[in-house]
Amino acid sequence: MSIEVLVEKARSHCIQNGSRFTAIREKVFRLLATTESSVGAYELLEQLKATEPGAKPATIYRALDFLTEQGFIHKIESSNAFMLCHHFDHQHPAQLLICEQCGHVAELHSHTIQQQFTQQAAKEGFIISRQTMEAHGLCARCKANH
């Protein structure tokens, strides 16, 4: 899906939810849309400064918080990095396969894993509000070169 299509999809999503897709939020969204791996907040900040020289850490963190709340991005907790979610038009479970060598992140959506996890949590009296699982290893490309 092209970046322009993703931006239009995000803009429509915000209009439907009564949220503001400001210029800064859109720029951060576009930066995330241009990478296939995850990216940290300070790296995003440096990229943003190319068009917004006055951008501060709070600028990027507010934008990332908004994009996360809207479901546009996933936060990779183990590396404190972010990646664009191309499936933000619907709620879904996310399982992330993170390559420890090249940093590529693949997003899976297994409802079976989610169902099993939810059932196990329920046995403990726990209700899951959102779920992202992370698995670290080698992607197919790095495994072939290993």
UniProtKB/TrEMBL annotation:
- For whether the record's keyword set contains Iron, the answer is yes
**UniProt keyword annotations, A-Z:** Cytoplasm, DNA-binding, Iron, Metal-binding, Repressor, Transcription, Transcription regulation, Zinc
Alphabetized Pfam families for the sequence: FUR
Per UniProt, subcellular location reads as:
Cytoplasm
Any signal peptide, and if so, which residues? Answer: none
Superkingdom of the organism of origin: Bacteria
| Residue intervals passing through the bilayer | none
Q: Write out the similarity annotation.
A: Belongs to the Fur family.
Can you state the subunit structure given in the record?
A: Homodimer.
Q: What is this protein called?
A: Ferric uptake regulation protein
